Structure formats: C-alpha cells, structure tokens
Amino acid sequence: xxxxxxxxxxxxxxxxxxxxxxxxxxxxxxxxxxxxxxxxxxxxxxxxxxxxxxxxxxxxxxxxxxxxxxxxxxxxxxxxxxxxxxxxxxxxxxxxxxxxxxxxxxxxxxxxxxxxxxxxxxxxxxxxxxxxxxxxxxxxxxxxxxxxxxxxxxxxxxxxxxxxxxxxxxxxxxxxxxxxxxxxxxxxxxxxxxxxxxxxxxxxxxxxxxxxxxxxxxxxxxxxxxxxxxxxxxxxxxxxxxxxxxxxxxxxxxxxxxxxxxxxxxxxxxxxxxxxxxxxxxxxxxxxxxxxxxxxxxxxxxxxxxxxxxxxxxxxxxxxxxxxxxxxxxxxxxxxxxxxxxxxxxxxxxxxxxxxxxxxxx
Length: 362
Fold this sequence. Notes:
The protein has 362 residues and is α+β, with helices and mostly antiparallel strands. 36% of the residues lie in helices and 30% in strands.
C-alpha cells in the first residue's frame, strides 16, 4: 500500500520544500515567483519565524485495535507545535535560532532548544527534558560541536562549502525555475487577494501567489514531476558548481536518472497512478507566497489535509497540518540575542560523554 501512495506523498512534500523557500505592480504568478526567488539571493541578513502545527493525525486500522503506544503517540502528536525564531547573516556566517516543541495529550510536555551556527561550529543548548534525567551541571550549557574535528574523527575532510547558504539559495532558484516551467500556470498557480490571504500582523505584501494541488490534477502533477521535472533537476544538482556543497557522487546521480527514465519505473508509475484515487484523497493542499513591495518573499504558508488509505488492509491515515515561514528586517544589521557561546557556558562532546559515564556508574 505504501509503495502505491508513497510516490504521491513524496511528490507533494518535494514540491512544497522547493517552492516554500522561494514582486511595484502585480506580475503573472509564475513570473512573480521567479522574480522573488532571484531577489531572495540578495538577502544577506534577516530575522525569521517558522511554525509547524500538526492539527490532526489519525490512524484507523479497521477491525484491528491500535495498541496503547500508538494511541499515546497519536495523542501527543495531535496539535503538536514546533516554532523556530532565528536571526541570520551571511558574512561572517552566523545563525542563531530557538526551537520550541510543544507536545499535547496525556503526556503533554514542552521544551526549548536554542542553537548557534558558525562556519565551523554548532552550539546546542542542553534543555531540561521531562522524563529524561540530565545532570544539573549540563542543563543550560551549550554543547559545542566542532564540525572540523568531527569530520577528522570520521576520516573525512571538513568542507565549509557544505554550509554555503547563498549557493544553496542559487541552487534552490534553479530548481524552482525548472519545476515551475513544467507546470501550467492556469491549472496550478493563481494570484489571491492580499486581504483574503490571512497574513499575520506585520507582513506587508503587494501580491500573494498560491500553488494548489487537488484530486483533479494530482495524477498529472506527479507525472509531470517524475517524467519531466526530476530528470532536469538531477542535471542541475550534478553541476560542477554545486559539487562541493552537495557532496554527491556523479555516478549515483547518473544511476538515479537512468532508473527514473527506465521503462520499468514508468510502468510502475502508470500502474500506481491508475489506482491513485483508491489510496489518496486530497481534502486540501496549497501553499502561498507573499511578496512585498521590494520583491522579497516575506511570508510563505502551507496547508495540507490528506487521507491515505489501504482498502486491502482496511487502514486509513489522516494527516492535517499547517506551516509557515516569515522573514523580516531583511538586509538590516542583525541583532543576535544569544551571541557565540564561550567559556563556562560551553561543554564539549567529551565532557558530555564523561558526565553520562558518571551517571551510568551509579
């Protein structure tokens, strides 16, 4: 069952991932998105707010009864919320972000994880986690991960190019352009009125573009993605300029492209799409991009409400979630609230392991 609907789920997520990280008078939707994506490459600093909410997650196993663990997990995940507030600057590269995870249900819990990223190090503040006893000497300190030292321990050479955010944005733009070129504007893209977009306070947009997938166009959307767009995207990923950043073997890419275009893969895709209606129902799936007067993509949100079924097993999985990204203070002098941890505020991986070793000896 999962094999039959997995292609569609992956396609939806891939499309969302590409366009989310995506303009003056209104432009046509695809033209406006391309212009905004290009403009995004000039973002040298910004503040960001992200939010993800699992509005509902259900598993109906028909005649079988869900075990206690499954029921507990579902209870925790329903209305679970993750938020990330961050600040970024390109040169010198520095990012700080604070992630907050709120779980609901009978096992409700909440914890906050601040983190700082520099060209060679990552600092993660050790939180106090309910039900996970941690030494008081560790809680509240920043665990320092030396990326260069970790690479050496693994017998590899640290490559700072893997953290080149501006090159990553350039790659994202190329992928976005390729992807959008394959989809018909009238079927998949549209402008929506700013006042109907439910933008949060503080977001001043001149144009909002929506990309939407429905039960009527999902089969065509997946076919276009796999047959037309993905082979071209593989070629983009394989470009020499992205080689260092992605660390992907050219032979693996060539093999993936060959397999994607093989007759067996096409036949399997056609078979899966023919019965797609039995396995996947899209109640709602769209994402919006709000563009401000300076052509920056300042807000994106996604709404997904789908049902995945296995008629043979009598299993139905319902997933409903929303997510959003908001950018502000673009290209202004960034204000870092955490800064780069140092001194007694920092604990190394070796010290962390020693502390856990002491705990295990009792």
